[in-house]
Structures are given as structure tokens and as C-alpha cells.
Amino acid sequence: MAIPNKIIIITAPSGAGKTSVTLHLMRTFPQLAFSVSAATRQPRGTEKNGVDYHFISMEVFKQKIQQNEFAEWEMVYEGKYYGTLNSELQRIWDAGKIPILDIDVKGAIHVKLQYPNSSLSLFIVPPSVAALKSRLESRGTETAESLAARVNKAAYEISFKDQFDEQIVNDTLEHACSDAERIIRAFINS
To answer: Which residues form the domain of 11?
Structure first.
């Protein structure tokens, strides 16, 4: 029997630290490869197509949904679609690596359901909703309205944390990265 291709799924509410933990894991484990998500939004700042996201139009995104080209997809924010292309996962497996997905909570649940025996899912939990709000405020990128929407969404997303294989409380980034490293090392070697 063939060994199934492994997948690592990292999820968390916005601002909980999933990208920081993911970047640490990418530096630590050369056998991991970042799965670049598709998005219908415009690039921000120095973001590059094919590196940070596959930036595609709403029309192309919807065509890919119809053609079942996504492992998961969601309208994460009103009118903004994000998803994981099956071709992106295959590209990484073909390179002999393990894809690491840094995706939203609902998308993570979908991938976990599709790959129940070959995936590891980590939920990064903020120490509290108040701490999360403070982190988002410190970014300086949110309006009062968008901040409130993100905090409300985060509280809702945290309610799904028990559906994931492991939960890591990000009280300090150093502890969260250390916990994630230990869990990922065991999964890679399993």
C-alpha cells in the first residue's frame, strides 16, 4: 500500500500568530514547502503573485470552483475568496516535500476532512480575545469597524478549536514555536 502524502495545516483566528509559527516551521524543517493559497483580493504592499498568493480574478476563481480545482475554498471576508488549489498540493508532493497550509479555520476543517489519515492540524489559540484585539490594534491596519468584525469572527472561530489535532496557546511566540516544532517533528517522523 502506498504511503499517503502528508499535509500540515496551521490555522488560527486572524492575529493569533499562525503566520509567525508557520514561518518558524519553514525555517526549521527543510522538508516542508509553503502551500501558496489563491486569493481574489489585490496584492498588498510588497506581496508577489505566486509567492505570497496566487492572485486571480473572481471570474477565474469561480471557474476553478466549478471545475473542482480546490482542496478547499471560502469567502473569508465579504467578496474576498481564498482557497487551496489541488495543483499546489500536487506540485509540493511531486517535489518530495510536505505542504504546510496557513489557512482560515473553515478551510482547515475542509482539508482535514479530505485527508483524515495523512494530515496534522494545529490550531493556534490566542491567550485571550482581549490579547488578540490588542495585537490587531498594534498592526495599525484596521478601521474600528474592521477591527470589531475581526474580533467577533475570532471569538466564533475559537469555538472550533477542538476539531483540530493539536492546540497551541500563543502566550509567547517562543513557546508557541517550540510546541509546534515538537509536534511537527513527531508527525514528520511518523
So the answer is: 7-188
